[in-house]
Design a protein that fits this description.
Blueprint: H1 2-21, E1 42-44, H2 55-64, H3 73-86, E2 94-97, H4 100-111, E3 117-122, H5 129-134, E4 138-143, H6 152-158, E5 163-169, H7 181-191, E6 196-200, E7 222-227, E8 240-244, H8 246-253, H9 265-276, H10 278-301, E9 306-307, E10 313-317, H11 325-331, E11 334-336, E12 339-341, E13 346-350, H12 354-368
Parallel strand pairs: 1-11, 3-4, 3-5, 5-6, 6-7
Antiparallel strand pairs: 2-8, 7-8, 9-10, 10-13, 12-13
Helix pairs in contact: 2-9, 3-9, 10-12
Bound molecules: pyridoxal-5'-phosphate (PLP).
Amino acid sequence: MKNAIARREWLKQTSMALAATGFIPSLFHGEKMIYPPPAVSIRLHANENPYGPSPLARTAMAAAIAGSNRYPWEQTTTLREKIGQQYQLSKDHVLMGAGSSEILGLVASFAALQPGNMISATPTFNLWWTVAQQQGMQVIEVPLTAGKEHDLPAMLSKITPDTRLVYVCNPNNPTGTIVAADRLSSFIIAASQKALVLLDEAYLEYTEEPSLAPLLASNKRLVIAKTFSKIHGMAGARIGYALAHPDLIQQLTALQPWANAGPSAVSVAGALASLDDKDFLLTSKKNNAAVRGYTAEALKAAGLPFIPSYTNFLYYSLQQDKGDFLKALANNNIRVGRIVEEKGKWARISIGTQDDMLAFVTTLRKTFTT
Ligand SMILES: Cc1ncc(COP(=O)(O)O)c(C=O)c1O
């Protein structure tokens, strides 16, 4: 009894102390520690789906907790089969990872087995480049066009006999632009004759464009990276996958410490259920489009240039900001992306819920409409 009171007091004091630091507001809810802690800010900096995980995924994940004492081998194989079927491929075309970041890193390590360079647009999603660079690979950056789109002819022209990897993020993060499937397909066919191509389709489900997975039926030098972090709303569950020809999947698998063992039993269960929750996926897509339209209108009204987006984020210019806007957002507990390109002061904002964006737009109006 004494111990229980002492523990309760300790929990209370610890959470109050943490709250005082500003990191976590309060973990003390009755006697329970809860996860996640209540949101301290409006998160518009990581392109997460604000509505997820889907109802079916939540139920499946909760149910999977009890089975977490067992390795999820069978369920992971079922998931690979199910993903394969979605693209008229087999489980042997699918490799699982703890998020698609693991896949990008794996492909970088594979490509770097032979010294050389990799070609990528800039700016793009580049966190994982360090994996390639640490292993001696030189990154050749090809600027986007003035419209912030991939410059595919320029990228193709940069490929040399030393090129080991060509990366295309479609739609592109942070700009939200997209290359149509037919143009990209021609590019991939040409580029993959010279080097391995890595196509990142993290945000494709927000668009009307089809996946280029059908190319994998014959193309042995293409890897497509996919994730459950975006439209499936499972960023915290850390689950993603690669699609590639089975020969290539085998070579990539050999670089994993334990084949397909990244995602947890809970994540695998959530992913299996999420694939079936078509209503959730459709609603997420529709809500995102509506709220993105609202945000774009507000940027336009405030006179800030932005790039039409096919994703759950917008790329906009803060050139006319006198330096107050990002500070004002931070003061209002709204977390946003940093300035990505100094020239033009281009920054990225993720699309949250209508309420999230109302908070963003309110700060926007106050700053720019004086
Ligand atoms: C284009 C792109 N690819 C991959 C990722 C990695 O996502 P995850 O590791 O959560 O699957 C992100 C994350 O924001 C991204 O924007």
